[in-house]
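Supplementary Text 2. Reproducibility record for the structural model of the 225-residue chain.

All settings were left at their defaults, and a single model was retained for analysis rather than an ensemble. We include the record here because the model underlies the residue-level annotations in Supplementary Table 4.
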Amino acid sequence: MFQPYRIALTMRTPIVPGKFPLHLDSLFYWFLSEFMDNDEEILDILDTVLEKQDDTYLCSAMYFQDKPKYISCGVMSKSDTMIDNLMDMQAWTDDKVIGETKMASVHAIAAKTAFFNATCDKEKAEALLKKIHGVGRLTNTGFGEIASISFVQLNRDLSVISDGRLMRVVKDIGLTPEQLKQVGGVKDYGRYLPPYHTHSKSAVIIPKRLIYTPPLNNAKNKGNK
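Retained model, structure tokens:
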């Protein structure tokens, strides 16, 4: 049975954010896609885990209670592809070659807890989260590792709007600039439901405060020296 929850993920390691907000349905989708190739079958499973309203899953993007604190972390790899991916996701700061191994420095969020709001089947959502070893980017190198999971039931759904602020990417319904300012949204082109990787995009509104952009001060300072 679907009920509204605030889901708290206690983090064991820092989180490397991507370019766009990370949604709970996206996290579930990518995990299931490791074992299934058919998008429709994956979405059928998601329909049993998360409630859907107007073709949008009632789950928020990842957020933090306090302003995120960024730290610089080193990553070593013999793969040029991984280094290129760091640049693509705008987490790049600097690199150097040590023998045949490249070292990159990425900005990660040092947070004790990350949160999602969702109207979901608690048992199924918790079972999936326990199988997912990390959130964010570079989880295969140890970033974003989840230490524990807890659910707090809410009186109402807070996955789309909470305290008057947008909590997830939604379809653009023609909000005025003043309305966008009120909900903290910005217009863009993208996806508001999985699969988020598809090139098929439409007009959407993105919660600006949930776009976690790494600081560029260090990179700029190095370039000025």
